[in-house]
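On clarity, I found the account of how folds are encoded harder to follow than it need be. For illustration, here is how one protein appears when written out as sequence plus structure tokens:

:::
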Amino acid sequence: IILLPAGAESWSEERRRTVLLHELAHVQRRDCLTHFAAQLVQAFHWINPFVWHATDQMTTERERAADDAVLAAGAKASSYAQTLLDTAHSYSSADWSAPASLAMARKSQLENRMLAILDPTNRPGQPSVANRVLSSLVVAVIALPLAAFTPAPQQVTDSTAQEPRLTRPTAPLVQVKPPAAPVVDVAPPDVMVSPFADGRFSFDMDDFQFDFPKLAYDDLDLDIDIADIVGNAMADIDIDAAEIADAIADVEYAIPYAIAPSPSASFQSNGVPLVVGDSLTIEQIIRLRRYGVDGEFIRGIKAIGFDRPTYEELISLAKHDADAGYIKSMRDAGFEGFSLSEYARAARYGLNAEYATQMRNAGIGNLTLDELTSLSRYDATPDLVSSLRDAGLTNLTASEITKLARYDASPGLISRLRGIGYTNITVEQLADLARYDANVDYIVSLRAAGYTNLSLSDVARLARYDVSSDLVNALASAGYKDLSAKQLADMGRYDVTAEFINGLAAAGYRDLSPEDVARMARYDVDADYMQELKDVGFSNVSAKDIMDMRRHDVDAKFIREIMNAGLKNPTPRQLIDMRRNGVDAAFIQSLKDN
């Protein structure tokens, strides 16, 4: 159900259509599920200030992903941006609280979203869009890795908490950096839109489909900057987004629309017989028909022991061709006692009785249904298992084989690595090398650039952040030679180039440590920003202060406003503290007025 404000009846057809497209994108992405997961996580970590900032960031990213979907569906960027602006303006009065206002046009997010929408280089399928698509998935599992940090557990959530309320830092304390850009396929030509005379539109959700690749992201890369609490410290966390996506996708089978059909097509609710129209909406009946769920299909499911299949279970089974015959074949193969949603998930990823028997005969062990489903999902074959054993990887678990298959780790890579001196290669190392396309040629090129004793873990990390031999040589020419593998990885991670380093030097920032150079790049302290500060009288700011100013969004506009409000000659630290604590020109003026 999509609820629009009462004033929506006066909107133009185009405005109403784009708003509905935006909200339908949220529905198709199941943002409500990740939002709910975020609320649960936040309930346990409400005291953590990092959670508050991560909440805001993830809300923004979710809206941007929906924006991208609207543009991909054919909306004109300029018209869509105007729609956002008009909607925000319409509901900017004090009578509308933030939670009550239309989420797609909240003013706190509007400026950056409009800039992204109007940027011709930022379109669905490009890296900048891909950086947004799955960021909300992190909420489901962030709690565990972040909870290990001191002084407070850290976690990414996605909700606006009520009480108690903490003062949240304005800095980008958590940065989400997916390593690769998936292509998001949207099929607008197949979207059937039925306009009514009064300007309303009807969308068929089964026609309106966003097809996100099942492996759009392999991992999410988080920077946790805890400098304000424990000094100049930084930590890295890797999140396996594909596994999170699996966990969230599985929720789709659990929506409770319980029905109990019989051959006479009557239904039961609280023991009282009901006609079909009382138990199912017309839309649900149409959807059942669309996927081929008829009386025969339902009777077949009931006949094998599932007396009360839910509406969503039936849809999921039919979607993936998991009928009664499929379930019986899986039971005959030894997989009994599972729920309909588990059988539907197995069918979804191509698992059948023949494959289960083949993998069992390959000698992996007593495989569970979940393990076989994962193996099938990533096309792990008995031949792969055999070739891995021939390469020396014996006694592999199902999860290890799944990981190697998932990243197309070739057994041939093992022999080639041994040929250049690497022995005792672990499954984790092999998977990471394949994951980040770190082959033998890449290792040889790094050796030619002076890095002759890298561990395989270091090689994978450098490949992950696109550290090439050309970058190594360019950094050396700019004065940064003999960097450690971690320093070099950070340079690649934050896109440090020789030109960037030379720009820092030209602005007076010479002899910076490799860590400071990476942090400068991380916070986008570039020549334009430094010139902007010089124009308002800040020409000799320390490296630490200028990074913190940039990090906390202390720009020339903010400085001018503060000075015009009567605060002359503020120091960088004072400006940073004012920004962090919400002191702006309007607040200063309000004090003067009283």
